[in-house]
Amino acid sequence: MRPEPSSGGAGLRPMRVLMVLESNFPVIGGGGAESQVRTLAMRLRERGHRVTVLTPLRDPDLTPARIGRHEGIPVLRIAYPRIRLFGSLVLWLRLLAFLARHGRRYDAWHVHIAHHLGALTTMMGRRIGRTVVVKISGWWELKKGLLRDDGGLVARIGQRWLRGAHALQAISHRIEAELLRHGFAGERIVALPNAIDTRRFGLRAAPAADGVPTAVFVGRLVPEKGLGVLLDAWADAFPQAGRARLRLVGAGPLEASLRAQAERLGIAAQVEFLGHRSDVEHLLREADFGVLTSTIEGLSNTLLEFMASCLPVVASRVSGSEDFIVDGRNGWLFEPGDHATLAHRLADAVARGRPGLHRLGCQARADVAARADLDVVVDRLLALYRGEDPARITASATLPQGD
């Protein structure tokens, strides 16, 4: 167990943290917000703190217990009727009742999705004097949730309540800019990325110079991941087999159409569809670089895993990726949907050769460890939980420019 930092010779007491989710916990296959809750909760527990997860009971067939544990983490689930509008009202009232009755047991409340439950939690936190940290966990909140531009009365009320949080955790600089545009106070916004447990992803030995470079994608096979563009660009960059191979790790509704596209483009022999896998760390150790062609992200956990695995990344210039990837330093960026530029970036990556890619990958790991290592993020969150001024809790310096 890593000891907590001391102040004035006296150790800081353990914290009791309530993490509030808008979705099920856990989720089979893992979602970004749910994965982060697990990652943070496990490390906080290792360091002697108490963490409880509060979530709606959205799928009683999947998670029937209202009170349970997941990997030792206490999970409280709020049941509510499956009746449109009425069910939501019951859920909201039961959330408020729980917080009013039991909320003082916790030193800090950490909201992981800034939607209806997050707004209500923030409002109640102010009423009973709890420290509330609200994380903007993805682009969804800004485009479809309470923070969208065309929101109605409920969205406006929700935004007003969210502004009362002790701190707003923006996981990317683009999200930070959007919060400022929506009128949130800059001194309450903390640019703090998702966390990556770098201990899970060990350093790799330099590969042999021979051998075909392997690119890997990890994620769901869905439209927003831009995989059709990836296959088009791959065919342009490598019309003949033997120069590189592409491994797609994940399942989803587009698998059949992507297989057909690979056949039509004549690259089926270069592309492996591996489906959902539980040994992702092993697969990343076998790869030479990562590819992320998303059209929209908050901050991809997969990006952080690639970098922690010593993989440079060819990534679309979207929220989060643009904060970590610097051309020629630890990967390459391209505009979402621009398959011609993507083809050039893929060709550039393969032209580096396996040893050259490994050198960039070592830099990628150093960069992600400096800014998003789990203990770096947890230290800053603990400072926020203890009520420190958000303006003083800043992310590490911006990465230097690439070659």
UniProtKB/TrEMBL annotation:
GO molecular function, one term: glycosyltransferase activity
UniProt keyword Transferase, yes or no: yes
SUPFAM superfamilies: UDP-Glycosyltransferase/glycogen phosphorylase
InterPro entries recorded: Glyco_trans_4-like_N (IPR028098), Glycosyltransferase_grp1 (IPR050194)
Pfam name, any one: Glyco_trans_1_4
Record keywords, A-Z: Transferase
Top-level taxon of origin: Bacteria
Domain (Glycosyltransferase subfamily 4-like N-terminal): residue spans on this chain: 31-200
Protein name as catalogued: Glycosyltransferase involved in cell wall biosynthesis
